[in-house]
């Protein structure tokens, strides 16, 4: 069995995690509030574009 070795996390990695969490929360906020029971097409297209960009990171 391999021994698990602890690794220190750098400040850059923590900052990157915070940016990623903020991006995910912004993405979910885009489609969280439907207008008249549905999501407008332009909002959905913006959502889709942002999701694709964030997933490419």
UniProtKB/TrEMBL annotation:
Keywords: Membrane, Transmembrane, Transmembrane helix. The chain crosses the membrane at residues 12-31, 37-55. It comes from the Bacteria. This is Low temperature requirement protein LtrA. It comes from Lactobacillus gasseri 224-1.
